[in-house]
Structures
1.
Amino acid sequence: MKVASLIDDLSACRDCVQCGRCSSGCPVAFESPQTPRKVLRLLQIGRVEAAVHSPFLWFCATCQTCTVRCPRGVDVAGIMLALRRRGYRKEEKELSFYRNFLRIVEKKRRVSELRLGFKMAVGKLPLHPWEDAVLLFKLWRRGKIG
Amino acid sequence: MKYLYYPGCSVKGTARDYEESFGSIAPILGIEYEMMEDWVCCGATVAKSVNKELAGDLPKHAILQAGKRSLDLLMLCPSCYLNHLRVLSQSPGAEGSIAGPFPAQYPAVKQLLEVLAFDLGWKEIRKKVSHPLKGVKAVPYYGCLVIRPYGLGGKESLENPRTLENLISTAGGDPVPFPCKVDCCGGGLLLSKEKVGLKLGGMILQEAKKTRADCVVVACPLCHFMLDAKQRTIEKETGAKMGIPVLYFSQFLGLSLGVEPRKLGLHRLITSARSFLGRL
């Protein structure tokens, strides 16, 4: 078993033959305006900035399906993470989840799911607020939070 | 066999039942462990998305402690497991600012499922099954990170793993064939892209419902939160009735070992397992 470390080097995109297997197995490709194959293509033709700001990046669930299925051995999920690190701006409203999570880790060294959930809910109302409020109560009754 | 047990943030919160059931089955199976007191968050997917240095430093706390005590690390959460595995296998200092000193004899990082399947073995576990769950149909659902990208320490298939199936049959139940067993549940997107996350979770639950199984068996706190706690929200979103209990594999195995449901934390499920437990 070979365990890969986090990569910064994007040159692995040259191995990609654009077969699209990453995108066909990608669980979020149906929602995202771009697919992982397209992001790799942008890198291949040198449009690194476009790849860094690709809307696909923050849809990625880091499920690793693309990485294990790539016939050319490209660590696709690793490249997505590398691009995320390049493009991350903590002021961006869309990325408040990442900012809030890190703030909690830096302060407390551990994540409180309740605190994180609250912070997110304050910034943007969840899709089903009533259900979530009921769930919050149920979690508390069952000793799972607080 | 003795391990150093690293809990993790979820396991101390919404996945409290995972830890409870682990604590109840470990003495029966002969898994010895020490609790890690001074643990820190592994960084989940967030640290590696934002800051490489942090993503390297956070898991090192646990690895250094395990090295000092020369014990293997045991984890429940697949995300913690993957992060520690990644950092452990690199040369010291490849990621992050803490350069070591890494112990000469690196400890191993293991997930509970790996310990059950390969360190103990199903044969040994079967001997201790006192209340086989006869006639219980269970959906084996792995999700992503316990299997991908390293297949339980390189010992499992990435596309068609069998470990949970073996666990279910060891406990006396019937694993049902489940085509979505390594698909993503969307749990990681729950707070950042809720709609997408709920859609993915909904797909898993709908497929599970089609198999007419009694319960789903999972290995990950996030999968469990998505499929159990968020089940009501998913019902609302998809308009389909689900009502299928979701158990951690340690809870499922615990039932077959004759542990009381309360000691396995089954009273903490959001989607009640009462109808299923009543039939046992």
2.
Amino acid sequence: MTRPSPRSVRWLIGIAQLVLWEAVPRLGLLPELFIPPLTKVLGVLWYDHAIYWDAFLVTLYEVAIAMMIACGAGILTGAVVGSIATLRDLLLPVFSSLYAVPIVILYSVFTAWFGIGSESKIVFAGVYGFFPVMLSTAAGIRTIDEQYMLVARAVGATIGQRITRVIIPASIATVLAGLRLGGALTIIGVVVAEMLVSAAGIGYLVTKYRTTLDSPRVFAAIIVILLFAVAFDQLARMIERRVLGWRSAGRAERGTTVSATDTALPAPAPV
Amino acid sequence: MQHVANLTVAREQVASPAIEVRSLSHVYQGRDGAVPALAGIDLSVGHGRFTVIVGPSGCGKTSLLLMIAGLRRQAAGEIFCEGRPMTVPDPARIGVVFQEASLFPWLTAIDNVEFPLALKHMPREDRRARADEMLKLVGLEGFGGRYPHELSGGMKQRVSIARGLVQDPPVLLMDEPFAALDEQTRMTMGHELLKIWSETSKTVVFITHSLTEAVYLADEVLVMSARPGRIIDRVAIELPRPRTYEMMATDVFGRLRERIWHQIRVTT
Amino acid sequence: MSRSYQTLVRIALFAGLAAAWELFPRAGIVDAMLLPPLSDVLATLIKLLGQPNVHEALAVTAAEVIVAFLIAVPIGALIGVMAAENEYFGEIIRPLLFYVFSIPKSIFLPLFILALGIGFPQKVAYAAFSTVFIVIMSASAAVESVKAEHTLVARSYGATRSQIVTWVYVPSMLPILLETLRIAMIFNFTGVMIAEMYASRTGIGHLIANWGENFMMPQLFAGVVLLASMSILFNEAIRTLEARCSTWRT
């Protein structure tokens, strides 16, 4: 008997997980406190959807602002640091050393400074998302083949044309991947911050229900966060695919859309 | 009136060579101070001539080419193209083909060829027509819609040549364009290049490491010394045109190669 | 810029920042309540390092970090190597891993608390959980990066599987392994910190969260400085080790 394709195995695993999620607690194999049945979780989510929606909007708002800050500042700083050799050689090693420090500990500082409202979360998540965006923009600018610039000058491109027609297209792959990672980190940053110290938002719901041992509602909140994270990731990848269509033009689509830039990035986030 | 004007123009053209380099020298800043790269280069290339420059690695041939193209500033000396000084790149007058095809990977072949024209805001249809013409010239008709990663090394270089020619510059500079290709492709490309050259009567300055290629392609071979580079020999290649592969097996060919090789060996 | 000049400039920058941290609060440019001067912070740090409750907290954190590391790394390495060696398994696992990667692990922390309560096991389990995936990925990549040619040469000399592993895989993988360990530790430490700050009665993360909630700013900053320095030192130590081992690489 031939082996089933990896794809089908994955599907099987996925379905098995859902089935187990429902069966195991109902059969009493594991306490419901630990893992409430899937249907209960979905039921609670449906029943309380207004609460979850309101919380989600708060989180969404914080994420949006933090993302704008992280991406904007990240791209700007990254472009500057990446193009000026002295800055680059000086600062990049510093940043990669800082990567070793868990930024979460700064959150306590931010809550002390900005209170428990949205500001502290926005600042924290902004800082969290800033670094991958900056690092990948700097890397993207740096790896632009010098030959491209030579060619551009040889055919008489003005500085403006060199930026718009060469630098941006050449570095956009890495920058987009960095934005995807930075955006993901921003979402995590906001959610973790809300879980830690907050009065509103999805993360706050998670903690609130956890302290009352309301497992189904905890799971429901986590599902909302998961959907958010996955939706963002898919959206970002779709944009990447659109913009970078020239990369896979003519090549057959592979099983999963693993972008070539996945490995080219600075290491993923420890959160 | 017209007749006299034509004569004047013709005389001017004959009077000023396509490329002229006078007393060019260059130094660059190494770790321990100034390093002389080029020393007192004088050369003159007539219109429609195919000139090849050979020399040992590091002798400064690429630097020289970049300076002629206006892409690098020399420390001393002057460069003229058709009587006008070259200080900045002038794509209408000089087209450049680099060693690495350096096609922009995010553009299709035809977009790459069109690129110089797009910079000048030439209208779309005119650009496309001209680019199509160039692709046809280099034998890539129908391949315009491909992306660089879908093209072979030889094809990429052909696109690069098409791009260099798209603005119809009288001069074409080529920096070891076939170096990254395998031997067989090189021979074919060299042959094709001569065909294109004879159809368009451009002035070509071509750099190569390969002595065979040099003798095969050139009207004249300029031999450069090791650093600091200077021109140590000018070898006129009196082989008949069109050149054929069979010529490579002749005594004349062998002697010309030997002469050049001897010069290079002596300086390194 | 030469290396020594670079180091000089970095030291100057660092000194500049330290000076600003000292002067701005003292001069009132920044509210000293919110950002105590550096000297106060350092003085507090020294005092804290002498306190038994701080010792206890550090010991607890260290224990969690080590145990979680010892759990996550072998498991992750095993799975990772299996994924690289067995194509079928790898094909199944790899896309799953990519999806897992786009999911933040920290949202699962409450689940660990619901299951294991608040305490040592929960924090260790969570930290191990957040570390294991990066170990899997890195181990898998490390194995794949072993040059196929080296393995081919070894096989042509009749090397057995275990010989190939010992004499080809391990030496060429050593720098990558160190790198994996370094990054795994970063993930691990972060995981422990998050767990301690979120729901814990012990550990340095808990102390820091506590100081923050009670506006004990000098202590808070002292804690931050301590943890930051420790992580950076450890990180750089492994980095230098990596560099030593990689001298043979181009």
